[in-house]
Write a structure and sequence with these properties.
Blueprint: H1 8-22, E1 32-37, H2 39-42, E2 53-56, E3 68-72, H3 85-88, E4 89-94, E5 100-106, H4 117-130, E6 136-140, H5 143-149, H6 156-166, H7 170-173, E7 179-181, H8 189-199, E8 204-207, E9 211-216, H9 219-239, H10 250-259
Helix pairs in contact: 4-8, 5-9, 6-9
């Protein structure tokens, strides 16, 4: 059996959480990540027949029965993951009843997965229904994206269009736009269900006055989506109070999208 601490998926979680904390996206215990793993790969590091304990989910995840995830823990600080992954992360399998998880590794202090894990699983189910290669769901509180929530209309078309105007790469990186939810109570199934519904259409969902959810095929892709939004939001916040002399015009966005062959939201442009 290989050493679990050398597994690429553990290393990715360690590096990504450290980087997100460094960027100020995940203060204290803010933010969470879940990563759908390959069962055969996990079996190279863990005895899949050894269940440490079971943890109730509090909702029906039947479509994900047997799936294995590595996930950040509730109340855990991202700054501590790299130094002590076995306490701050857990590897869990969705049990046969669909309502319980089986802990295979981690949470060694008796902890459990993030309170938003049900919301993550709902988003995983939604994304897998449109993209079977989706593996990562990431939630964080990027500073400029959050600041933009307070001064910009929380309208999906207008929010997306503004960000597309900020950086040439934006319409290429997230051509499907950004879903937007109003402020909702976090850690509940209600916000999870609303996010999952948006995830059928978008890979990025803004939680009003709270943060952002991103989904992707890899850790790099998901991080990169949020990183690009945050850069665009930063440019917006640095320039919103100034006279706009130049901008990226809608016809230029079309030129970009068609040159790079991306399927963009034509209804989010003003043509």
């Amino acid at each position: 059996m290989k050493d679990i601490f050398t597994a690429l998926f553990v290393e990715e979680m360690r590096k990504t959480t450290a980087n997100m904390y460094r960027l100020g996206w995940d203060e204290r215990n803010g933010g969470n990540i879940s990563y759908l793993l390959d069962t055969e790969e996990v079996g190279e590091y863990l005895d899949l027949n050894h269940v440490i304990r079971t943890i109730s989910l509090g909702f029906d995840a039947t479509p994900l029965i047997g799936k294995i995830f590595i996930v950040t823990g509730t109340g855990k600080y991202f700054k501590n993951v790299d130094a002590d992954p076995e306490t701050n992360l857990g590897i869990v399998r969705i049990a046969a009843d669909g309502h319980t998880t089986e802990l295979l590794w981690g949470f060694k202090d008796g902890g459990k997965f993030t309170s938003e894990f049900p919301a993550h699983l709902m988003s995983h189910m939604a994304r897998l229904s449109v993209d079977p290669d989706n593996r990562v769901v990431m939630h964080c509180h990027p500073t400029y994206t959050l600041a933009m929530n307070y001064v910009h209309e929380l309208d999906e078309k207008k929010f997306t269009h503004t960000l597309w105007e900020m950086c040439t790469e934006c319409i290429v990186v997230f051509p499907d736009g950004i879903g937007v939810l109003p402020w909702m109570l976090c850690g509940t199934n209600s916000i999870g269900e609303a996010t999952a519904e948006k995830m059928k259409e978008f890979r990025l969902v803004v939680w009003g006055m709270h943060g952002i959810y991103g989904a992707g095929k890899t850790m790099d892709e998901t991080f990169g989506l949020i990183e690009t939004v945050e850069k665009a939001a930063q440019i917006y916040m640095l320039t919103a109070h100034l006279p706009r002399i130049n901008t990226i015009r809608d016809e230029q966005m079309v030129e970009l999208a068609e040159y790079f062959g991306v399927n963009y939201r034509k209804d989010f442009l003003n043509l």
